[in-house]
């Protein structure tokens, strides 16, 4: 790996500064196919953005190309690759074809390509401005691809295959919860934070007389549609059969139910049953509610 990747000392969400550096050095182009990512305004006067920021090394336990590196800023611009949505999906699904070293080479070559074109040097092929017809083709094609993804996801959601995808996401959540608790126990061993498998496919966290319920309820129809995820912060504990501990009568402090669904690009995840608009990936909802739980207990 290039040495510069290891210079950073913090881990946080992608900052505005890192995002600007990435987009600036990438020239608003996909690093693989060189497609322009922010297209002309559509008839509704909105710019269509098909660009996505891809992590070269993932910080998520089950993420593509995941590695645990001390004092490494996973959200640095140096660990990000700007891609169109199609190549982002391809690269993250074909990890063996796109290992870390290959992605770093793609990033380096692309940023050199952008710089060479901006500087007017002849080492790289010049970017030829697209015609209005080409921009229209890009716009219609991207809209078509998104609609096809949504149609496909809707069909999968109503099938047994969708339920298997839901269970794979549930497995990812359980693994993430277990990893979080393991890391916390390593850093704060005197707290003795516990995880316990429950009867709803995932596991609970027990800490200082409180419980974080993390449960998945499968639809009776044996498909993913109408299956949902539950997170709840509870003051109180439960026994191995799920019954309330008489010494700690449970009080629900906060709760959320999320339907297994897909977003506007056809990507599977979890949609808030109440708001209908809030959508989360498995990693996002797990990180949000474990943080909520521990901040509630330790406030």
TrEMBL record:
InterPro entries membership: HNH_nuc
Alphabetic keyword roster: Endonuclease, Hydrolase, Nuclease
HNH nuclease domain span: 30-93
Pfam families, alphabetically? Answer: HNH_2 (PF13391)
Q: Does the keyword Nuclease apply?
A: yes
The enzyme's first-digit EC class, named in words, is hydrolase
Q: What is its EC number?
A: 3.1.-.-
Question: Is Nucleotide-binding among the key words of this record?
Answer: no
Quote one Gene Ontology molecular function term.
hydrolase activity
Q: What is this protein called?
A: HNH endonuclease signature motif containing protein
This chain's source organism reads: Shiella aurantiaca
Q: What is the lineage of its organism?
A: Bacteria, Pseudomonadati, Bacteroidota, Cytophagia, Cytophagales
